[in-house]
Amino acid sequence: MPLSQPVTPGTVDWTGENPGILLKNPDGTFSAMALFFRVAWSPAGPGQLLLLYGSPNSAESLSGAPNLLLGDNSELADFLIDNFIGKLPAFRDAAPFNALKYQPATAIRASGDPMGHRYTETVACPNTCVELVWENLERPRALELTPDQTGTKEHAMVTLLVPARQAQIIVDGNSLPGEVGTRVQAGFETTTAFLYFAETWIIPEGT
Amino acid sequence: MTRVSVNPGRVEWSGENSGILLENSLDADYATLALFFRIVLSPHGRGDAALVLGAPDADVGWPYAPNFLMTNNQRMMRWIVDGWVRKFSAFRNRPGIESMKWLDLHSICCQPAHLRSRHREKAFGSDIELEMVWSDLGEPVPVEADRSHSPTGEHDMYSVFVEAASASVIVNGTPLPGQVGCRRIFDRTMSTAFLALSNTWVTPSGTGD
Q1: Mean pLDDT, to the nearest integer, of A62-72?
Q2: DSSP class per residue in chain B
Q3: B 127-186 residues with CB < 8 A to A
Q4: Does A102 reach chain B within 8 Å, measured CB to CB?
Q5: Residue B88, burial from CB neighbour count under 10 angstroms (0-12, 13-18, 19+)
Q6: pTM over 0.90, yes/no
Q7: Which of A5, A40, A113 sits opposite B198 (nearest CB)?
Q8: The CA-based dihedral angle spanning residues B61, B62, B68, B74, taken in that order and rounded to the nearest 10 degrees
Q9: For position A205, what pLDDT does the model report?
Q10: Minimal CA–CA distance to B167: which of B126, B121, B205, B206?
Q11: Which residues from chain A sit within 8 angstroms of residue B6, using beta carbons?
């Protein structure tokens, strides 16, 4: 619940949307990972970015399962890689991270209803079309997390979480393998497929 | 810093809710009130809207006065006008709210220009071309307002405010009257022209229907 002082102490690092889908193999390892960003404000400007690890255990993309970094603002891509994605262990420590190459997207589109049954983000570049699909959506929840509860361990964060019980990562019409799993965030059990809206990352005062 | 990580209240809607409130130079009352909405989540779906009261105390709507609301989701905006806009202090009891013309919004065009100096939203529809421009932008301010600080007095609200030192509202090429001023909100003095990004409204637990 909001603090008694209405202006949060600290500096806004970036704000926007940050949905994702992490699909798992039966042994619990990741089979495919995707994060999407629709940033309304950052020091590198606004923009959109898709990070896809279709082959999370390989620096090189395997057939039909590309590792991609697609967006509409290369400066924003650099900012997020350095200041955010590079601080998330699951993404930073994966094999594709150091081999990622930014490509301009030719089309980026959201559709569906996050308070309905299905929501999608579609991102295309000249040779590939990626569709992220979230289904069987739960009710939205407003979260306020302290740095020890966030992925970077450096930022405070407020966000609006809509968990999905089913999800797909579709590349050129083919679904990547894997299933949605479970995870715990701030003591709350949720899933590895999530929509995050109105998400703000704050560098706490004095750090 | 004491926090409850998961707000137990009911999320109502989320998106952007930027505003330009222009004051008369003579009496500091508002000459023009304008809000821009880009809603990404609500019980009535998603949508965009621009609400303009160029004559907030006139009991007439477009085309007789520049009082109108353009939207591509009327049901959502009826709900937001009734549940939120009417409760904002600048809009409360304004005749223009009752008489504003409801119009279709055909398209919007956003030109954020890096959000370092200037931001522009253009809206087109029903023979109206609306332009809202925020200039001389400041640093983003993170806001978490409980109901005692929230603009409605009823909700928890999370947002990022970017203040503008100057702004204009232009309808079919004609700037609406007034100048950017200051107001007390969130326990500080802030500009009456602002971007409100990542804006989420929550009905506190135990107070909703």
Answers
A1: 93
A2: ----SB--SEEEEEEEEEEEEEE-TTT-SEEEEEEEEEEEE-TT--EEEEEEESSTT-S--TTTSSEEEEES-HHHHHHHHHHTGGGSTTTTT-HHHHHPEEEE--EEEEE-TBTTTEEEEEEEETTEEEEEEEEEEEEEEEEEE-TTTSTTSSSEEEEEEEEEEEEEEEETTEEPS-EE-EEEETTEEEESEEEEEEEEEEEPTTT--
A3: 139-146, 149, 156-160, 162, 186
A4: no
A5: middle
A6: yes
A7: A40
A8: 100
A9: 87
A10: B121
A11: 141-143, 186, 188
Structural tokens at position A75: 């400066």
Contacts of B16 (CB under 8 A, 6+ apart): A40, B36, B37, B38, B39, B195, B196, B197, B198, B199
**CB contact (8 A) between residue A116 and residue B160:** no
Are residues B186 and A6, on separate chains, in Cβ contact within 8 Å? Answer: yes
- Which among A4, A8, A187 has the least Cβ separation from residue B142? A8
Interface check for A115 against chain B (CB to CB < 8 A): the answer is yes
Q: B74 φ, ψ to 5°?
A: -65, -40
- What gap in Å lies between CA A5 and CA A153, rounded to an integer? 23
pLDDT tens digits along B15-31: 999 999 999 987 879 99
- Omega prior to A96 cis, within 30 of 0: no
| A142 vs B1, B11, B114: nearest CB | B11
Q: What is the band of B206 on the pLDDT scale with cuts at 50, 70, 90?
A: confident
- Higher-confidence residue of A207 and B189: namely B189
Give the pair of three-digit tokens for residue A183.
């995870």
* pLDDT of A3: 62
User: Who among A46, A115, A198 is closest to B43 (CB)?
Assistant: A115
| Cα–Cα distance list, B165 to B22, B64, B106 (Å) | 11, 30, 30
